[in-house]
Amino acid sequence: MSKFWELEEVPLKRHLNPKEKAFEAHFINHTLRLESGRFSVSFPLKDLPDCLGESYTLAKNRLLTLEKRFRKQLDVKLQYINFIREYEELGHLTESTISKPNPSYFLCHHAVFKNSSESTKIRVVFDGSAPTSSGHSINDILMVGPNLQDSLFSILIRARQHKYLLTGDVKKMYRQNRNMQLILWREDESLPIKTLILNTVTYYGMASSSYLSTRCLWQLGEECSDE
Predict the structure, then answer these.
(1) GO BP, one example (predicted)?
(2) Per-position DSSP letters for 126-181, written without gaps between them
(3) 200 or 62: whose pLDDT is higher?
(4) Pairwise CA distance, residues 99 & 87, whole Å
């Protein structure tokens, strides 16, 4: 019976614990609104990046393994190339002038396919949990942050208060520290391997991205009126 009543209770307002309060304070103190209207955020690190070891070797081995797959699946290679090119065209990545910055973290990456997607069938996922030579990964030193989304109950009740309901999907929402988001890439095995910098928040594989993007949306709502 107690479980039944717990399920039927109206959700109470959530209070942040000390770690979540620290994340919120970090966001407030390290987030800027650019002239373009976009938010510039900083990774909420709970430890110094010096604890990260060497990650280049693993990232290179993963790339070489990926290229073996490309030899057998040319269609996957083409889609992968197009995905990385789009990143570059949008300014979401640039080539680094230093092949192995220090400190740095090289993200391993692979493809995930979603045939039901109307926009992008292929998605490149970046592995922020791949351990470096010290045993630590970038996700190990990132704060995750609290869940800012309302409960499903609250969302449904609020939706029923209006005559019309609009929903939408923010395209390429999760893409803004630079040397902590490096990848290795080349379009063909005959070319030299390049170090690329991801310039925007990487959702696919980074522990703090969900909070950072949702918190930016919340901040946008605070700064903008309904007019």
Answers:
(1) DNA biosynthetic process
(2) EETT---TTS--GGGGB------SPPHHHHHHHHTTSS-------TT-----GGGS
(3) 62
(4) 19
